[in-house]
Design a protein that fits this description.
Layout lengths: L8 E10 L4 E4 L6 E4 L7 H7 L7 E6 L13 E5 L12 E5 L5 E9 L3 E5 L9 E12 L1
Antiparallel strand pairs: 1-2, 1-3, 1-9, 4-9, 5-8, 6-7, 7-8
Length: 142
């Protein structure tokens, strides 16, 4: 069988879990995902592990945080006045905003106090190792 390489376009089914087994997302029950290997359309660690697989092959791999959404960075925690967030905001609320350097980001509210709020600009899965099961269904284009 032909081994897949960067530039090949394939259809895959996948399931992603945290290392404790809690499910995050699956493509089963939906249309398969079509990707170009090596094009950065999925997390890098999984992209690299699909390269070398063959059509019809299934693989279950652990992707370390550094190859998924990166480490959780304390520098991405921002404190601001509570008055700066909408009324009714609770811990876990996702807010769109702009960082001090002008970049648009999605923040997760992680702490609310009377005067201050803590916002986390890390990806929600930053710092998490991911367990991915991927099946290459077919090759669309090599």
């Amino acid at each position: 069988m032909t081994k897949l390489k960067n530039g090949d376009i394939v259809r895959i089914h996948y399931t992603v879990e945290l290392s404790d087994g809690s499910a995050i997302v699956t493509s089963h029950g939906r249309e398969p995902l079509e990707i170009e290997i090596g094009a950065g359309q999925i997390i890098g660690g999984l992209d690299r592990r699909i390269s070398g697989m063959s059509a019809g092959e299934m693989k279950k791999v652990t992707i370390p945080a550094e190859e998924a959404y990166g480490p959780h960075e304390a520098a991405k925690l921002l404190k601001m006045p509570r008055s700066g967030v909408p009324r009714g905001t609770t811990v876990g609320t996702r807010l769109r905003g702009t960082t001090p350097d002008g970049h648009h980001k999605v923040f997760t509210v992680t702490e609310l106090c009377d005067e201050k709020v803590t916002l986390d600009a890390n990806h929600p899965l930053a710092g998490e190792d991911l367990v991915c099961e991927v099946t290459v269904l077919n090759v669309v284009k090599t």
